[in-house]
Specification:
2 domains; Pantoate--beta-alanine Ligase, Chain: A,domain 2; globular; Rossmann fold; 9 strands
């Protein structure tokens, strides 16, 4: 695996590649990231993974500063997955000037995560487009755990006519159901034992809806109450349509239930896709 930190070297390395699969990350890699690398290895002759902690995605500088930097261990994991190129650019290369041009995402970026993380998806879309312009991948892979992000990037690629196939990777979970996330490291031992409750309430909604329940509001309210009664601070538990992320309708088959809640000082997100019979 080649580790490249500057743009000119990246272009020189990739200019002769016929099929590039790209996975953007902020590092602190786990099995979820590695599952994307496994898919990429089967899809392309050259797999590129980026590691870049994007300060635009953090609402507070303290959160940016405390994000785990684990470059050495990340590199070893990627070598084991036969990744061809690890691109770890310097911030000054990606942002040579103050960033004044941004990708403005569609209105559904303002709901769910967008309601609680102002301009988050604008900043995510902007940095992803930068990487697309630098790497010119034919394929890009994103995990379903960040469901809204996946849908926004997919919409950006489609509406800007980017010649890139977006592949979605399934959420990877621990044995007890907790979705893998870099944020899990912030959980105390006691909090970790309680963290699966978010997955459990989403799973119960999935089971109820797939069994025929159409009382979406009651299911959402009950899930919120269960979490609140167990010490969680809930941002949202919500049923939406998969493709558009519009609020769920009883006559729509393909739904997703999404949740975000804080346990102690750690904010967790998760989701489950739901298939219903009309």
């Amino acid at each position: 695996m080649e580790i490249i930190t500057d743009i000119l070297s990246l272009h020189a390395r990739l200019k002769k590649e016929s099929c590039i699969a790209f996975i953007p990350t902020m590092g602190n890699l786990h099995a979820g990231h590695l599952s994307l690398a496994k898919i990429a290895r089967k899809k392309a002759s050259c797999v590129v993974v980026s590691i870049f902690v994007n300060r635009l995605q953090f609402s507070e500088i303290k959160d940016f500063n405390k994000y785990p930097r684990t470059f050495e261990s990340d590199s070893k994991l990627l070598i084991n997955e036969n990744v061809n190129v690890l691109f770890a650019p310097h911030e000054s290369d990606l942002f040579p000037l103050k960033q004044e041009f941004f990708v403005e995402p569609p209105l559904f970026a303002n709901i769910l995560e967008g309601e609680f993380r102002h301009n988050f998806f604008r900043n995510v879309a902007t940095i992803v487009l930068k990487f697309f312009n630098l790497i010119h991948p034919q394929i890009a892979l994103f995990g379903k755990k960040d469901y809204q992000q996946l849908k926004i990037i997919s919409a950006m690629v489609q509406q800007l006519n980017l010649p890139i196939e977006i592949i979605a990777g399934e959420t990877i979970r621990t044995q007890d159901g907790l979705a893998l996330s870099s944020r899990n490291l912030y959980l105390s031992t006691d909090e970790r034992s309680k963290a699966t409750r978010l997955y459990q309430v989403l799973l119960e909604i999935k089971i109820q809806v797939e069994s025929g329940s159409k009382d979406f509001q009651s299911l959402q309210n009950k899930a919120r109450e269960i979490l609140k009664n167990r010490g969680w601070e809930v941002d949202y538990i919500a049923l939406h349509q998969r493709n558009t992320l519009a609020p769920a309708q009883a006559n729509v088959q393909d739904l997703v239930v999404l949740g975000a809640a804080r346990l102690g000082n750690t904010r967790l997100i998760d989701n489950l896709e739901i298939s219903t019979k009309i």
